[in-house]
Amino acid sequence: MSATLYNDAILKLATDNPIDERLPDPQGSSEKRSPICGSRVTVDVNLGPDGRVSEAGMLVRACALGQASSSLLAGNVIGRTPEELAAARDALTGWLAREGELPDWPGLDALAPALDYHARHASIRLAFEAAADAARQAKGG
After folding, report:
1. In a 3-state reduction of DSSP, which class is residue 28?
2. What does the pLDDT look like over 58-115, one tens digit per residue?
3. What SS3 class is residue 39?
4. What is the rounded average pLDDT of the residues 2-19?
């Protein structure tokens, strides 16, 4: 393990996911998998009458970076619209590819040590991709 990549902040995030159960009957659900490492993240969402995420569930079977990213998503997914989740997914993808600024999502700067580890980017994106897809489904799109 690289000390610079798997630092204390990332390892702490990897063990601190505030959402550790799936929803029993979600309006939208999506599982994403990284073909490189086999990491998997499933995100379930329910939308409230205002069209924002009112409940979320997760099942994370991922490497430390995938777990850390999932924790960051989980800590701030409630209250987001499907459009905001899609924008966060796209911004994260751009940032990891060094084609955009750090996304406006609390804590993502902790994943900056992974920018040069391209093989890890798919795992980092899993939770955000699954959340955006689940929210789109829940909205009926």
Report:
1. strand
2. 999 999 999 999 999 999 999 999 999 999 999 999 999 999 999 999 999 999 999 9
3. coil
4. 85
User: Distances from the Cα of 111 to the Cαs of 3, 16, 47, 118, in angstroms?
Assistant: 13, 15, 28, 12
Average pLDDT over residues 116-124: 94
Distance of alpha carbon 49 from alpha carbon 67, whole angstroms:
30
Give the C-alpha separation, 40 to 21, whole Å. 14
> CA dihedral defined by 85, 88, 89, 90, rounded to 10 degrees?
120
Q: Find tokens 């995938």 and name the residue.
A: 66
CB 129: neighbour CB atoms within 10 A?
21
Closest to 40 measured CA to CA, from 22, 16, 55? 22
Residue 37 CA, chain-centre distance (Å), reads 16
CA distance 86 to 129: 8
Strand blocks (E) in 1-128: 28-33, 40-47, 53-61
Q: Tell me the C-alpha to C-alpha distance, in Å, between residue 61 and each of 31, 38, 68, 75, 82.
A: 11, 9, 11, 17, 24
